[in-house]
Amino acid sequence: MHNKVLSILMVAALASCGQKAPPPPDIATAQSAPSQRPTQAQLSQLVRYPHFDDTDPHEWQGRGPRSYPIHGIDVSRYQGDIDWGQVHRSGVSFAYLKATEGGDVADPAFAANWRGAARAGVPRGAYHYYYFCRSAAEQARWFIKHVPRDANALPPVLDMEWNPRSRTCTKRPDGQVVRAEARKFLALLEAHYGQRPMVYTTVDFFADTGIGRLRDTEFWLRSVAGHPRQIYPGAHWRFWQYTGTGGVPGIKGNVDLNVFHDSPETWLRWSGQL
After folding, report:
1. Is residue 157 included in any domain, yes or no?
2. Is 53 an active-site residue?
3. pTM flag (> 0.90)
4. Is 74 a catalytic residue?
5. Which single residue of 70, 103, 148, 206 could bond 134 by disulfide (Cβ 3.0 to 4.6 Å)?
6. 222/23: higher pLDDT
7. What's the structural domain count of the chain?
């Protein structure tokens, strides 16, 4: 993981898999473990509980995304030119940027977004969209070729999901193969960047492959029609993507919106700002 990150989330599979992991260590020990406390100045720089538009909002039952203080976005070339200063002022606390896909596709907006987010003071990380017709090692090398080492960056992300609309790869490997390939990719990136990558995934992929069985891995879960505790029973998560139709000042059109699982203090520690 990031050299300033203090703990690693243990992730559970679906309840039907019959496995259950302990609560995330940083949540369980945050009060007892000695750590630097954030200053009022650091906390005041965060826009907590921001309000963003949504062109197709879900009527949340019980706890919804607005109850979480730290919100962020993930973007790719489809968002076009981004005014990162306006994005930051609107209350975006983090951004994940698409860098690569498979072993031969690089997002043409990545370099500009990487620089722009950094200049605006938005903590940012990069993600890779996995392609099931290339090896994990080849894809890891492709990501490493395009994403620079940066001690201040958030942990990289492996995006694993089914893509039924692919024109070039219709493979749907079984869960054992998927998990083995994921382990290889994560290990190669961890060795290069010194940070354990997160895994982003979707409801059907999580259920079909048992990807949640990966140990020592934090998860970013997509769930646009229910809280993750309902949609991913028994799973622990670090990020929750709650809509793909968000509206953020500085970005034209829709954008994915996400929340961080924990408190502003935990966010500052996890993201290496303490």
Report:
1. yes
2. no
3. no
4. yes
5. 103
6. 222
7. 1
